[in-house]
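Chapter review: from sequence to fold.
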Amino acid sequence: MAGLFETRATSMVSSSMKERDTWGSLHRDVLEKIFYTLMTSIPQAHQMEVRCTIRKVNKHWCDTFNANVSTIMIHNRRVIATMAALSHVPARFPNLKSLHLECSLRFMKSATTRESESWSKKLARDIHHIVSCSEHLQELNLGGTDVIRDNASRFIASLSTNTSITKLNMGFTRLRGSAAAAIGATIKNNRSLKQLILFGNDMCVRSLKPIADGLMGNDSITQLMLDVNNLGSKGACRIAAVLASNQTLEVLDLSKNMVESIGAAALGHALAHNDTLKRLELGRNVIDDEGGCSLASGLCSNVSLRTLNLNRNLLGCKTMLCFGSCLEVNEGLVELDLGGNLIDDQHGLLVINGLKKNSTLQTLRLADNLLGVRSSMALREALMVNWVLHNLDLGENCVGSVGAALLMDGLKKNTTLRKINLEGNNVGCDMKFELKMYQTSRTELDIHL
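The token string follows.
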């Protein structure tokens, strides 16, 4: 019910804004009246989420909503800049659990230096007050802001002693120098933070150092998102050192970071001695066979990792051979993504052969490669003896009608597979018809063609 009211209010305000932009006849005051009329018409019991998306909010906006509001989302910087009532949030909304102040990067680039500094100081002061006084605040999203760039000490003081916030999003916040040091100090002192999101900051290795040092002494953070930061192999090596000593981190995202084989080798060595990490994202890097083999070697003695994503790297035949051997002995991996690595038909069967002796892998993604009939034959044999695989992604390969026929033969003797993707494989119409007819006899099986 609350979602219905919220959607109605948001869509009507958005459509009104489009009319104003088109005809230039709708004044801001009229927009505000529409917004407040809609929100005041919603029963107070259903006002559990406030999503402010219009460009200007009256300073008395807090009085519009009741004290039961648990989530406030503001996605436009001009809204924040005109919010005189932001500092009143803790007193007005004692049950607030989630505060999103994700700002428009487009506006940030167009703002003057004086305007940006003034806005940041005011917001830092208000954030300090909110974090210090909101006893139930669990999630703080400051994505796209530069609130800690010139206010590091205030930021540290407010978060270091906080015991309620479990999720902090600082994506696209231009972490440099004192800002990165502030995050590091916060991590080191805070014991309630569980999820830290730092994607899209384009951090250099120097900026990563205080954050890595903070993680060394942290025993609460379980999820760390560092994707799209251009950390390279040096940054990956620093994070690998963290994995060697950290005993709480469960999810690590290093995708899109230009990590090469040296960094992957360090991570592989860390995996061999780590027993807490459950998910590792390394997609869209530049890891070649040397790094891939190191990761596979580390997995041979690792029992905790459940998901490994190596999508769109530079992996070749040696890596496929290593992962094939790894799957034969690994007892923890549940999902493996090797898509987008230009694996040809001859080398694809090397990793597929590992499925014959594997008893844990449930999802295997080999999409966007060059797998053909030989790989399909190996998969047919694997499906006949493997009883744990649930999801097989072969989209955008070269399986063809012959390969599809081999796979269907394997499926007839397999009762555990639930989903197989064969889209973009040049399967003929007759073979597609046979697969669809076979699918009707197995309602639990989903075949994508």
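Two observations follow directly from the output. Confidence is low (pLDDT under 50) at residues 1-28, 30-61, 104-110. The longest helix spans residues 2-23.
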